[in-house]
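Quick one: structure for this chain?
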Amino acid sequence: MVAIVIPSYRVKNKILEVINNIGNEVDKIIMIDDECPDNSGKFVLDNSNDKRLEVIFHKKNKGVGGATISGYLKALELKADIIIKLDGDGQMNPKLIPKFIKQFELSGADYVKGNRFFDIKSLRKMPSVRLVGNSVLSLLNKFVNGYWNIVDPTNGYTAITNYTLSLMPLEKIDNRYFFESDMLFRLNILRAKVVDLPMRAIYNDEESSLNVWLIAFKFPPKYIYRFFKRIFYNYFLHDFNIASIQLTLGFLLFISGLIVGIYNWIISIETGVTATSGTVMLAALPIIIGFQLLISALNFDINNIPKKSISEINI
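Got it. Here's what it folds into:
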């Protein structure tokens, strides 16, 4: 069974077109009215005859993540084999749904996500603010979630298997715009296989409710916390390998060299005596060696991308 989850908020002008374009390969359409001020849920029920459709109404707005999670829980209840998340604003082409389904067969992935950065021509249609923002977020997410092989991490056109979704701590995932990034972080903790699916986004005259400045202030602390948590889980709790040693020694050497260097610099300023070459090397050498070890750990992390599906590992 294939289920489509559509979180809906202020999408009244596009939602019916999106639903009407969903093909017969889909068995269930789950729409979530996230306390939409336009009453999009009621609007769809009054104007759509699609028997696959079920609408969930939120009494309180939970954000795109919270709405998607409500749909995920319903899909798990229905025992859907593949659950695809599709936005209701018309920016994601429902005709790509068969390709998402096929990608699971071809790659053996646990999670498939759209990639708008594959086609250069389509990028020209993307608003410049979104293009720059997504490029920066893509780089940051590689450090945070450990999936160095994927880009466009904030793309909300995604698909996940029932087994993978059943292992996800849905109650812990961010309910707002950090949802997609948090999903990737949680998937990496599970060591799930994630692959990209090239797609073209559709940009019309729709209004985005995403506040760029709010994201700029709220995302960094979330990124930092999840980065260190991923490193701890993957290299110290769930596994201990050469990268674990490189990270530990590299960090200790780098910090110790930095402390020695700052201390001697302050002493040199206070006494007016220039530090000797030996004193300089006493600080510089640990910093250089520590930095090299950290770079080696980074290289290990880049090559440590999950390559097998978690269902295959847990057989």
